[in-house]
What does this fold into?
Amino acid sequence: WDQAAANIPEHMRVTRIFEDLQGHESHKSLSQEYFVGLLARHKALLLKSDEDQDPFNVEEFAETIEGLRLSKYEYVGGAAPRRLIPVEANVEVFTANEAPPDQLIPFHHELAQVADPPQYIFFYCDLPSETGGETALIDSTLVYRFVADNFPQFMEKLKLHGARYKRTLPAEDDKESPIGRSFYNAYQVDSKIDLEKKLDKIAGLQYEWQPEGSLTVITEPIPAVRMIEQQHNHAIHQWTFHNSVIAAFLGWQDSRNDRMNAVCFGDNDPMDPKVLDEIAKFMDDNKVSYQWKRGDIFALNNRLVMHSRNAFTGPRRVYAAMFGDTLPSEQVKRDGVGHIVNDFSALTVSDPTTFGMWRLTDPEETVYQAIRAGYRRFDSACDYGNEEATGRGIARAIADGIVKREELYITTKLWNTYHDPLHVPMALDRCLKDLGLDYVDEFLIHFPISMEFVPFEDKYPPEWSNLGGEMVLVKNDINATWKAMEELVYANKTKHIGISNFNCQHIRQILSIARIRPTSLQIECHPHLSQEKLIRFAREAGIRVSAFSCLGGASYISLDMATSQDLLFENAIILEICRIHKKTAAQVMLRWAVQRNTLPINKSSSSARMTENREVFDFYLTKEEMKAIDSLNKNHRYNDPGHFCEGGMRTFCPIYE
It folds into this structure.
């Protein structure tokens, strides 16, 4: 961990609220990078001082969050009245929602009714209430799945149109109302003229001045369901019920507002109150409530967690702070050869699910159906022997208007017989011809194995042997091969270049000479072969990792490279996790791969299974579940040239040792 947070208290206890509310882990410090990683993985944290230390005071709370170096967030558009709390640290700390204590504050993402809500929310307890007053939390992905499973039409309409919120704001703060913040404070203006100028800039927003001086605002359509893809190179890829719909429906009631008119779909159609009541009931039945103690700190990932406040008796002081994203890190990051790495953009993808083209019986129809099912990333290779059919399926999907070429991400690979720099461009030209494409998105060196050239016109794909049926290894400078790959980027025949089946030392060799760094590493990876160190090594160099054979040995049984004993679909640990989440074994293993920051490559000839294998964004695995699957690792490869080349081609060719 870096030392950017030198003013953070020396010791603290961290509890994962959703996963282990009764336990905690001790930490000496929490750097920005480590802390946002915790919130990306676990969503909500409880921070307490160490057992032999006094509870945190408000100044220590402010210093702690200041040390995390998060960007300031301007509190504009909120409904609740708040007061600033003076602190020495350069952060804004204010009272949490000061709604009357006998009123429940319903579940919501903070400021989800505005276009750009805060990313991180912190709460600090200065004085717990006598009874009640818990800050209850719920996993937003859990709510999304409930709504999608039980009210699919409601969910589809919410996805398509979003939500609009209607609220009438007073000219002065109304402390008797949970939504009594004045329009001056809500929009951070000093005059009605300035307010109108600000509101007029928001496309789609409507407002009307009322005779008594209040202001009615109907927001523009706001996205109400969000896919949270990644945060700081940590894979999230979860759908969230990211809105204030239930909060508005239940809580936006006072002398100026009728909660029954507080929210509608973005196309102005009304929302069914019976559906909203059912969602609210589910939230209440599945919430996690924690009774505050003095000095406690909640840290919430506002993109993933909804919060509420229970009614209470007696005095209660809970303060809050909210932030946008992190400030730029000053930490210098280097790859495995000591080069400074500034570009980590390759680690960010909108959809990690990738469809593989290896060993398909009807590749044209399969790729067409996969595109219909929503896949946009496709993994091909000259060696698969089906790129012409693959290209026809892609062309059909484009011609039918299902997808545009620029929406697809097509990967193909350089085969072992074409490593000579003279043959590299010829190999890609043949792939492009067969695929019917002007360019591919990614071109990978398939194996770090250089073999005797086989002329295209004599045998294609050449597979593992020459015209005489022999596997012949040849001398070759893989660095020269890489330089020839770089020329293909300059020629606009591929957007990116990468590597496959390379180990750490192979990667070091490429990084040492690369003008264009590899964006991708493709490796065999599944619970029997977790490759944790290799994945970390690649990602620290800014190289994303794709995982083939991500479901284990099933595809290798017919090749006599695996047995029924290798099947992970029947593993007791995986089946128990399936039971908990009501998911298939394939979905659990794909989710495991996604949460390890890899892009899992899967395939199926069944349209139903294609869709099913993409339904991995409505749940997540806990730390304990991830560890349980990690424990299945036995460093066992199914696709290992060190074994199959000797058995099938009489050539000993290890590459991983």
Notes: The chain has a mean pLDDT of 93.
